Amino acid sequence: METRFVRLVYYREQGSFSFANMHSVTHSVLLIILIFRGTNGDSVNQTEGPVTVSEGALMTLNCTYQTADFTPYLFWYVQHLNKAPQFLLKGLTADKKVEHEGFQATLIKRDSSFHLQKRAVQASDSAVYYCALSDTVMEGCRGS
């Protein structure tokens, strides 16, 4: 039986996102403004570099944050090759699991974490994943 692997590129570049192969610079500028608006001194830390997982296996991408804000909002975005980043999940309520398209995450305030998981990762999940922090719920990210 052949084992297939899924490569999930997951990184952060010195406090800012890298939007390689974006269709529009306007989209990336708008997303950066929305993510970092009003987050003075706040930070998000993600696992650096590519993550390779066997197809069908559990995938976990770590995200921890630091903020002085009492009510942080955490978000996961996914960017497939040659596409703009797309909203995936948001964490608005502590200790409440959120799920979308097989992905799940729980905002755990005591650990300052919002780790992304998928139980049975597929080749179609190969992409760049971004964790983001905001002090407001961003317009367009209120669903799922």
TrEMBL record:
The keyword Signal is annotated on this UniProt entry: yes
Pfam families: V-set
GO biological process terms held by the UniProt record: adaptive immune response
Boundaries of every Ig-like domain copy: 42-144
GO cellular component: T cell receptor complex
Keyword Signal: yes
Domain of life of the organism encoding this protein: Eukaryota
Keywords: Adaptive immunity, Immunity, Immunoglobulin domain, Receptor, Signal, T cell receptor
SUPFAM superfamilies the record matches: Immunoglobulin
The name this protein goes by in its record: Ig-like domain-containing protein
Organism of this sequence: Muntiacus reevesi (Reeves' muntjac)
